[in-house]
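Let's sit down with a protein and look at its sequence and fold side by side. We need material for that, and I hope you will provide a protein of your own picking. Once you have written the record down, we can walk along the chain together.

***
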Amino acid sequence: MMTKMKPTRDGYGEALLELGKSNPNVLVLDADLAKSTRADWFWKAHPDRFFDMGIAEQDMLATAAGMALGGKIPFASTYGVFVAGRAWDQIRTSICYGNLNVKIGGAHGGISVGPDGGTHQSLEEIALMRVLPNMTLILPCDAEETRKATLAAAEIYGPVYLRFAREATPVFTESDSPFEVGTANVLREGSDATIIAAGPIVYEALVASDLLAEQGLKVRVINMHTIKPLDETAIIGAARETGVLVTAEEHQIYAGLGGAVAECAAKHCPVPIEMVGIMDTFGESGTPDELAEAYGLTHREIVAAVLKAIQRKK
């Protein structure tokens, strides 16, 4: 598949610009990483509605909660590992407990931060965010979907966590591709197995599906861009119709997308499940491509997982 390359964070920046023009209640807060998050695009266009809080993530989220109580729609963004890790108490108690209308941008999710190493690679925040009541959790697959997800977040009342990546990744959705929070998109039809993926690794799932087709296997690919609320209908249907599920994510295999899918399948339609993700370890320094190879986050591992799951079905 030939596609253009673009960082998903660009979609976040583009959407903030659109929201700045259309909604005067939208404010943007940043923790001294505006250039990295693309929040600086909003800053340049609407400096009176941009607030650099410095390297103080807890203060940023508490301030965002106060702005939401005042009727504003604050978007607070920084690296996902910092906002989800350092400010989890503020997200839980100051924002989610009161169901406040705060949007959180978690940049540089997964291994995309590359050379910055394990301290900056956010591999646990899906688990941290999806356990919180009232939280909506979205992992867009490319820059275009990130733009749509950010615009959609502004229309949802309540806390929303958006995870996006640093490096340029393939853009394979279009401006008219469907996107609805809580409704998964079936990108490939198939009856032999199903791959459920979220984030930029969805592209690797599509490559894997094409390679498996060369072996005569029809593999469904689902873009589960919303982790919470989870599209259980899509999961149950895939389990019943294809008999096996494979999940793929740039996150720990525990308590992330794989865990969410397994919980749903165990309750409604138990089938063999294989998970592609980070295997209970911290990251290390390297280019994103090197790390994807090192941690088994490529189409090759997805293909192997599908074949293994199909063998278990037999």
The domain at 4-171 is CATH 3.40.50.970 (Rossmann fold). The radius of gyration is 19 Å. The first strand starts at residue 4 and ends at 7. The chain has two domains: 4-171, 185-313.
